[in-house]
Design goal:
two-stranded parallel ribbon; 7 helices; Triger factor/SurA peptide-binding fold; mainly alpha
Length: about 180
């Protein structure tokens, strides 16, 4: 699979559009490098197992909701259409890309979440070493919530952190199985 410099620039503009930053600010080298990495991940993960049909329908529903929310960020419908035209995309193409992003996120979550769940000891350790000092720093003398009140949030923070680590490992394992080339045209 080949990724061109124009693919990277187009993806940069698309990501800024989705983030509500339109028109997109000029990218710097670091932003383009990050987008190039995202595109590489997308290419490598696109060769992995296919989602079940229920996932596809749910992702299309989420994409439609997200597109509706994006439309509302523009003052007038014609501003939204002008942004799409500048992106070189139609609404169905945007819907397809958002749904594909959702499918990729589901694939990552389904594959990696079971291995990423933290132990009770890891949660308690994070509460003591990270949560308590940060909470006290931000909230001064306010009463610190007990672990039982913030445990689910801490579990999710630790799970997401571990998923990111596992994703990096997975991508490294996939790199030798697929060739991704970058071209400057």
């Amino acid at each position: 699979m080949a990724i061109t410099a124009s693919d990277v620039e187009g993806e940069y503009r698309f990501e800024r559009f989705l983030d509500g930053q339109w028109p997109a600010p000029p990218p710097d080298a670091a932003a383009l490098a990050q987008v190039r990495e995202h595109l590489t991940y997308q290419v490598l993960l696109s060769h992995e197992e296919s989602p079940v049909s229920g996932d596809q329908a749910e992702c299309e529903r989420i994409a439609a909701e997200r597109l509706t929310a994006l439309r509302k960020e523009f003052m007038r419908p014609e501003d939204f259409q002008a942004a799409l035209q500048k992106l070189g995309l139609t609404e169905p193409q945007v819907l397809t890309r958002i749904a594909q992003q959702e499918l990729t996120l589901r694939l990552i979550d389904q594959r990696l979440r079971p291995a990423a769940l933290p132990s009770d000891d890891e949660v308690a350790d994070y509460y003591r070493r990270s949560f308590l000092p940060e909470y006290q720093k931000k909230n001064g003398g306010a009463a610190v919530p007990p672990l039982s009140e913030v445990e689910s949030q801490i579990r999710e923070v630790l799970t997401q952190k571990r998923i990111n680590e596992l994703l990096d490992q997975w991508i490294e394992e996939l790199k030798p199985t697929s060739r991704v080339r970058f071209h400057s045209f």
